Amino acid sequence: MGKVFSRRTALVAGAGLTAGLTVPGVARAEGTGGIGFTLDAETLDGGEQVTSLTLGTSRIGPIDPASLTTGTFGVHAEATSPIDTGGQDVGYDLDRPVTAARLDRRGNIVLELSHGEGQTGGGTLGYINSKARNVRLDLVYTITQNAPVRLRHGRPVSFARFTQGRLANPEVDAFGYHTSRSGMKYRLYSPASPRGRRPLIVWLHGGGEGASLPDGYYDNETTLRANRGALGFATREAQAIFDGAYVVAPQSTSAWMDDGPRFAPLIHEIIRDVMRTRPVDPGRVLVVGCSNGGYMSLKMTTVYPATFAASVPICGVVAGREEGDPPLVPDAELAAIGTPTWLVASRDDDTVDPQANTVHAHELIPGSRLTLYDHVVRNGHRFPGHWSWIYVARNDPSDGGTHVWQWMARRRR
Question: How far apart (Å, rounded) are the C-alpha atoms in residues 124 and 121?
């Protein structure tokens, strides 16, 4: 949610006035603009959370780390939707427990915040049921200083005020912002030192990460913050397996399933743009997508049968939306797919029936592979059965000892 703060400058300009400390002999660190702080975020398997705050205190001099405790500062967070929710409360207004207080290598104070899968109050996104969309929440963090900190030469210091700065998520920030000539937004990760022509991985998001144009909402952010689908391919592990790969994440103006045939050429235009401006190997373009994007990854291989070296549709949709509706991807199209395909789903998916969609597609696509899980569980936390993209983002699916990333990396058209 990198643009939450630039879009809501007025909300954050003075966020976090400290409680007054009138301790005798304690110096006030007034300074121009007070002490700024950043919101440090990580995209977990279940979505992005603010995991710590970094206070820009290095300029006041070396702080004695022994003067920092979990009670030195209090943190309050308020999150609200940037668009109308129809009365649904998608945000929160609560205190964030500080689990540790330390200094980073620059001498800035870092407040570690309680966070974890399934934990409320730290997320940067809210899901609006009536719109079936994730939105970046407007976040206002308030820091209260409860006790002075001490400089290493012994002088106690309290800070006059705190000013909220940007949201920092290094994994997300590594993806640049782009817009195609047709107006479709996308994010692009480029390998650090591409040597020769490299693979291009196309990540197609789920339905919740599209735009909501009736609300003027098209952020180019939720695609990287709702899950680790695209981010997984930019990790050090993945980049080593692919020997450096570009990763592109287009954002739909609605949902891919609303009009796949119309969206297909818009996605293809982005692929061509990246191939024209970056050293991409045209024989190693790979498409991966989840849910709505699982449908779209299949659709792309039917519309552009000569473009992709491999396809990984995750919990995708091929059947009609409602009983009696024509299939989104007809059987004849599935049977004609020649792109190497590895399908992934979980048996307990209660959003997209895996039997009528993933298993059915596997039975028709020649030579396709299938990984069908019983549940979606990672590090002891059980996620909804629809979230099987978590496994692909962690390179978990395997077949005959070969994991899905390695399989993708070996595919050539």
Answer: 9
